[in-house]
Amino acid sequence: MKKTKIFSLICAVLAFCMAFSGCTVFETDTEALMQPPVFSEEQEKLNAALTKVAGEGYNLKYPASGGSNSAFIFKDLDDDGVDEAMAFYSTDGSNTRINVLKQNEEGWVSVYEAAGFTGDIMNIEFADIDKNSPAVIISWADEIGIYRFENNRLKELHSSECYGSDIVDMDGNGFSDVVIFKGSAMDRNVVNIFRIYENKPAVTEDVIIHAEYSGIYSSKTGDIGDGRTAYFIDCSISEGVYLTEMIIIEENTAKEFTIDDFVEDETAEVPETPEESDGSTIIIIGGSLGKRRIFTRNTAVSCMDTNGDGIMELPVEVRDDYAQEASDTVYYLEYMQYNGVNSVPAWHGVANTESGYLFTLPRPWNSAATAVIDSASGELSFVSAENGETVLRVHTVLKSDYQDKYEDYVLAAESEDHYFYVEALADPESNFYIDPITFEDCFILI
Ligand SMILES: [Ca+2]
Ligand SMILES: [Ca+2]
Ligand SMILES: [Ca+2]
Predict the structure, then answer these.
(1) Which end of the chain has the smaller Cβ count within 10 Å, N or C?
(2) What is the CB neighbour count within 10 angstroms for residue 284?
(3) d(C-alpha 71, C-alpha 43), whole Å
């Protein structure tokens, strides 16, 4: 996903800067970062082979991300047991050419040469899309090309507009599929899925999704609960409004679903989604709680398997208002698990996404105590709706900080950087009483 790519890009740039002094971290022109001053013997041979084809005045182009810090990418492209080398270069500074070199007894020799696209390569990935040789997936700034190297030729399987992609096994058949995020046509964001279907390269029709690629903060595949596998996207669809979408592929058709498609409630009046909705008014009324379940949420959590049964659950808010309350109020969440007919709650509690945990609480807390997160300290507290008294606090403490003031609290969980202390303020007779020995069971780190 994009964040990984950006992170990889930063790592690549940093690694480069450490290796070659004089480069600043603000250097972003990939061409300026090329041509390492010292070539290994192997690279000298590759360079010589490439010079025979390209002439002297070429610049090697490095993928901006993807973990490749060499201008030559080694991979057994045709499954003959010997690695080929791929190189990208430009002779005029703008057009990128692709070259594939093979090894023989004397060294390297160029066997394939083609024009690529204009501009920089963002990423090169390889994927096992079937039992044959791997697909070569080349991402440019706003295009994707999917190829296979056969008979010493890079054969194009698919190319299209693309603002981001993800290589996952969408349909659970053991081979990779490529999720291609395309730009918004008529203000709709679309994806389609490339994969091998019935032994041929195939692309699904465009599927409209709510998520803009840049708003996606998590994606994964998993079981939805009825035996099918889905690709799950957690995204921000507008300021502070988050949604989980599922894309399921069947035959050669992909469809988008949200949790409301998986809730059976014949008596519920489900308002139509207004065309111009920001997402926050899409609601499901009724259900066993007598509350509205809102399938968008103001909490940036991701779908996950909360109960360890191998089936993914989807987070929804449980609330009885439309309007957002004070900005430090957080809504209780429920993770809903689909059973093939209906979605049922699998987990209930509150998320503190800044501190990185879910805090499990019994369902009655939802109407009895308001949850508040202090954005400065990360402290999560619960205030009794009846008398305004604070009944429970969860402190987030940096491990590197001095912390003797928390000695009286219960150390209930820790992450890599933080300790989480619980301060129980309710009497043992109170409805808010939780036995401190069970506090650690309340935490799910996210
Ligand atoms: Ca090979
Ligand atoms: Ca697959
Ligand atoms: Ca589960």
Answers:
(1) C
(2) 20
(3) 9
Which ligand sits nearest to residue 249's alpha carbon? Answer: 2
Q: Which residues surround ligand 3, an ion (CB under 5 A)?
A: 305, 307, 309, 311
Give CA–CA dist 321/324, Å, rounded. 8
How far away, in angstroms, is 221 Cα from ligand 3 center? 13
Rounded CA separation 179/170 (Å): 8
Q: Which value, to the nearest 10 degrees, does the dihedral of the CA atoms of residues 38, 41, 43, 44 take? A: 80
Give the closest ligand to the alpha carbon of residue 81: 1
Considering only the C-alpha atoms of the chain, give the largest distance between any 2 of them, rounded to a whole number of Å. Answer: 85
| CA-based R_g, the chain, Å | 26
Closest listed ligand to the CA of 202 = 2
- Compute the distance between CA of residue 439 and CA of residue 414 in angstroms, rounded to an integer: 12
Cα–Cα distance for residue pair 49/26, rounded to 1 Å: 33
pTM of the model: 0.82
DSSP helix/strand/coil, 68: coil
Q: What's the average pLDDT block by block, 10 residues per block, for the chain (446 residues)?
A: 42 38 35 50 89 90 69 92 94 89 91 84 94 95 94 95 94 95 77 96 94 93 94 91 93 90 62 38 39 73 96 86 63 91 91 96 91 92 94 94 81 94 93 93 96
